[in-house]
Amino acid sequence: MASSPCGSNGSSSSFDSGLEIKTRSVEQTLIPLVSQITTLINHKDKPKKSEKTLHAIQRVGQAVNLAVGRFVTVGEAIALENEELKEEMSFACLEARRAGDTIAQLTDVITLDQPESDERATIFSDKTGMVKAARMLLSSVTKVLVLADRIVIKQIINSRNKVLVTLEHLEKVSSFQEFVQIFSQFGNEMVEFAHLTGDRQNDLKDEKKKARMAAARAVLEKCTMMLLTASKTCLRHPDCESARINKDGVFHRMRLALDQVIEIVTDSRTSGEGEVQVVSIYTGIKEFKNRVEGLRENLYIVSKDNLLAMLDAMLEHTEDFTDSAYTSHEHRECILELSRQARVELEQLITAWIQAQSFKAKEANEEFEVAILKTCQCMNVLKRELHNAAVELTTDLLKHHAEHTVLKALKISGGDGKLEAVAEYTCKLSEQKEQLVEACRLLRHISGTEPLEITCIHAEDTFQVIGPQIFSAAQTLALHPSSKIAKENLEVFCEAWESQLSDMSVLLREINDVFEGRRGEKRTYLSLPRPGKHSANLKMVKPVKLDAEEQTTIAKLGLELRLLTSDVDSESEKWEDQEHEIVRQSQCMSSMAYSMYLFTRGEGLLKTTQDLFHQAEVFAEEGYKLNSSLQAFCLQLRDNERAVLAPEMEKLVVLCQQLHASAKTPVQGKNATFLKVDSSIQNTKSIINVIVYILPLCNQIIRKNKLEKSSLESSQSWGENQFHTPANEDRLSEKTANGFGVKSLEHHMASLTFLESK
């Protein structure tokens, strides 16, 4: 999008039109269009134009117009079906159609045998008109896509509203027969809501919002079973106060999660958002170090007061560790000593800084450089000490509570009707809850990424909420020890607690990986598998048990896959632009592959082979998206550079096709399932291998062209080169079929959720 044909004359606002693109699907749809329009506008005017050049220009213009026509047809159909957006959508479609027609007319250059005698405006004679048409096209197409996205949001809101109405009915039922009937309807509505929100989660560009959506959906998933047993218990024992409290807690939590989903998709601000935005120590140290290191280039980039305030704020957060009753004496003393040392190092840095400024130096001298290094090193040591303190506490807690002794005792005491024993074990579980909550708070400080911070907050909230619910469920069972439904209800809440402990173990490993630099950004734990055919089918697939030899084979494959994901992360870190689409998509695919590795170890969110196959299917789809980004990237390259990437891109597409087909092919029986698992991981491994090869190639090309760019006359020279040689003219013709063309827009429009109802 950086090479927008809006030009450099301050006209980019006409393209933006106040529209914020929040989803990857909309963004990816616009990239080919921008590339095609840029190609047309940035061609280099030459006195003599070959017939091949003229044909290429005309083909691109016609392809753009044809694609816009089909795109607009879909947009107009949507306008007819959605009265509230009809006026805006119709106007945007009309603008897009006009712009497409104008571009087709301006690129109709084949008949220009004697251009000097032809008064008709063309791309050669009316460059301003072409730029104006391009702006209008980009703005109107973006408008159509964003309006279409509003319909997806509307679907999610309507689905949530249906769930809320049914939830209210469920809360008020007074008979089992009525409850069963309404709960069946509720289940169907929740499946629909899960589909819509799952697609939205995967389409969001903002990783923070994606993590919040995953947390809310995880709450809804777990609460659905809790709601069933808590409601049945309350119906069986209508006069039991603890049963009512237990049920009310579930309904309240579900409503909060439903509201959070809507807050995310509508981008509304809430009081809960403030808690997520509290700066962690990890973030504070990172920002502080960036400011200090920035002094090397510019001695006046930040003020001394600002640096002192940053350090004070960061060290204030370390009190969460030093004031914690669960931090060991050794860690507490070490953190306090490192905090004192950090203040000393900053004072020495400021002294050297003032001295350097007094010499009116523009950059850091040797003494100042040493002070910078010592300050940053002190921060690194402090960060590691805080990390070790949080990880050590969490590891000890997870080991200590691995046998779930208190939960087992609670269930036995409740089943025996021993209220005093239940009260005793409730106190012990309350202590355990406080320890785990404290561990979550400390982990959040050193988590390393915003998505993992949000996951820590989600884990903390879960322990805070489920603890009291276990207490009320255990009390209900103790009051009604012969009640099977009360026993089942307590079992469900205890399983939720155990599940959260298991999730916390995975989270701890991911935080460790981020700290040690083995992972660029963890998304596996945060992203629930996208709903698909398997999740829509309520019949459970019978699990397949692999024998020891098969497990060994799969584990070996998983380890090889794990090593390759580390290579992807390593190559990604070498890129200057960490937000480059190729880097982000590669990291996303690496994280998906990592989740498959966790599956081979019996860990992570992929619990069954069906989960694995669905993850493989989504992984293949992400591979297609990466290939689209690579194609857009190649449009900016010379022929020799493109020739290096082309074979690897072809290989990537073939491998993704194989994986996608394999993942969607149904199998039965143990042997067939094992072979499919083996094939899925092998194909994933091959795709990651290609990515490991492509990443450094692209990075090298970008660096090389960046060095050359300074000697070129215009920042748009890559675009101008596209008309310099016959080979580039051929490429322009090829883009007619593969660029903006018809494929990208039609593929996007067909994939949008709102079209599934047509």
UniProtKB/TrEMBL annotation:
It comes from the Eukaryota. Its main location: cytoplasm. Keywords: Cytoplasm. One of its GO terms (molecular function) is actin filament binding. The keyword Cytoplasm applies. InterPro entries: Alpha-catenin/vinculin-like_sf, Alpha_catenin, CTNNAL1, Vinculin/catenin. It is found in: Cytoplasm. GO terms for biological process: cell adhesion; Rho protein signal transduction. GO terms for cellular component: cytoplasm. Belongs to the vinculin/alpha-catenin family. This is Alpha-catulin. It comes from Polypterus senegalus.
